[in-house]
Amino acid sequence: PQPPATHPKNAKVWLQQAKVDYMAARDNFLIATEGSENTMKEIEDYDTLSMNREENNEVEVKGDETADMLVDANTPEDISVESVENIEFKGRSEDEIEEDKSEQGIKEVMEMTEDSNIEDMTETEMNEQDEETEDEKEVRRKLQMTSQCRYPALVCFLSHEVIEKCIKGIMYAKCGLPDHLLDYSHLKTLCDELKSSTHCPQELVQIVEECSLRVIEHGNKSRYPNYHYPPCTPASVYTMSEGAEALKAAGKLLREMIKDPELEELIGELNVLPEHQFRTALSSYLYGGSGGEDYPDFWDDHTDDDGDFKLVLLDEDSDLDIDEYNVIATSFEQTLAPRYEIIRIERIQNKLLWQKYSDCAKRMGRFNNGKIEEMILFHGTSTNPPKLIYKGDASFDMRYCKQGMWGRGNYFAVNASYSDVYSHQCEGPGGYRQMLVAYVLTGYSYSCCPDTTLQKPPFRPGGDTGVKHRYDSVSGVSGGSKIYITYENDHAYPAYLITYTCI
Can the peptide bond before residue 230 be classed as cis, meaning omega within 30 degrees of 0? Predict the structure, then answer.
């Protein structure tokens, strides 16, 4: 059989719908967190949709006198004011009845006027107007849901749809979409089909696969109570943190797609929510914005006795800590065998290390035209106690790094199972182990096979100015996990300490 043909028009339809879904998910997230009023003001209600276009067919009607004039001049004999006499006005006063009759007549006249104007339009103009109107209606419909359903589940579901529609749009644009996959929503199957094509850039395929894995559990099945135990509504299953992670994945895919000139033209301009605004919005939602200006809002206040360092125990039974605890615990448990039990999770608040990390993020943003890619990854310290990292002033100190498969650098893993091999064995009874959870600035990451000669990431291709910058990190696969390697101290911040044991 012949391979499916590309179809730019269909690609645009799917990608425009993906954009609409992302806008609705993004705005729903910001409204639900209720801590991002400034962000909401910065983002236009409908982004690139021209909601302020001139409406040439608009009819303004004011008062009964204008209504009578319109009826006399434009109403056909078979649609006269008399045709509204059959409307039920039971229990209404005479004044109310007359007012309703007048409004009904005006409505019919306006519909007839619009019909006559449509007849004068060309077919192209009608198609353009219909397409724009449908987009506007779709945005309005989904934004209306935010006032009725501010649940994280809605953000998760919409983010899943964004990625599904993006994949189909990419396939229509690059390699064609087989008919049997048109109504298919299983992301793994769609990713496998995309990977089998030789017409789609492999770098984009990798991003699609990575983002799909982050929302794959938010598909149709997760919408129904019978897929949850005990049976419950999805709204009570998902947390706001999960909604944030799903929205990040959808935004990351769209941001990467826009780098492709062909896809950028099909998608158009889109305001993707930056990483730092996720943290601001989520922390404001969880903790009410009680933190200092230069540090995360969800941090506890430091007393004089604390100084610049504080270790905060997260209480899994506390309403304040539950979402934060669940994000770390879920990621740990999902990527490690069930025979391990978490003893405690502690938040690391080191002001000096945070300032260095924040400054590094700002520098990365300037060099990368605003791209600051941040990931939450695991790190084992082996024989070195974790406190040497989180309580010191050098963070993940390159001076103590050993030679690894990708040279001498700081190694971080997506899966906790990899870092468990390098976990720190605590002294004393209990056989407790410890590993760190870190914020890592992966930025532009260079994916390659193991290379023990690496001392820094390689150079990226030069831009229009001819100035070359290095990749921000190196990535590869080892021990069944994706690995990220950084070669500078301040590219990572030790955010949490997990103490656990084998059961």
Answer: yes
Instruction: Name the nearest CA neighbour of 395 among 503, 316, 495.
Output: 495
pLDDT more than 90, % of the chain: 27
| 211 vs 283: CA distance, rounded Å | 23
Q: Give the Cα separation of 22 and 272 in Å (integer).
A: 9
Cα separation, 267 vs 14, whole angstroms: 9
Count other Cβ atoms within 10 Å, centred on residue 272: 16
**CA 7 – CA 182 distance, rounded (Å):** 13
pTM for this model (two decimals): 0.47
- 440 forms beta bridges with 375, 492
- Please state, in angstroms and rounded to a whole number, the distance separating the CA atoms of residues 16 and 179: 20
Using CA atoms, how far apart are residues 194 and 174, in angstroms rounded to an integer? Answer: 9
pLDDT (0 to 100) of residue 446: 93
Q: pLDDT tens-digit profile of 49-58?
A: 434 443 444 4
- Distance (Å, rounded) from C-alpha 373 to C-alpha 252? 9
The answer for residues whose C-beta is within 8 angstroms of residue 179's C-beta and 6 or more apart is: 4
Which pair of structure tokens corresponds to residue 403?
A: 């030679």
Query: What is the Cα–Cα distance from 309 to 24, expressed in whole angstroms?
Result: 40
Range with lowest mean pLDDT among 122-136, 205-219, 319-333: 122-136
CA 38 to chain centre: 19
- Report the half-sphere exposure of 428 (CA within 13 A, side-chain side): 4
Q: What CA–CA distance (Å, rounded) separates 1 from 289?
A: 59
Which residue is listed with tokens 């404001």?
A: 284
The candidate with the shortest Cα–Cα distance to 277, out of 309, 304, 247, 322, is 247
Task: State residue 92's pLDDT score.
Answer: 52
430 conformational bin, left if phi > 0, alpha if psi -120 to 50, beta if neither: left
Task: Tell me the CB-side half-sphere exposure of residue 111, using CA atoms within 13 A.
Answer: 9
- Per-residue pLDDT tens for 283-309? 555 444 433 346 887 888 888 788 889
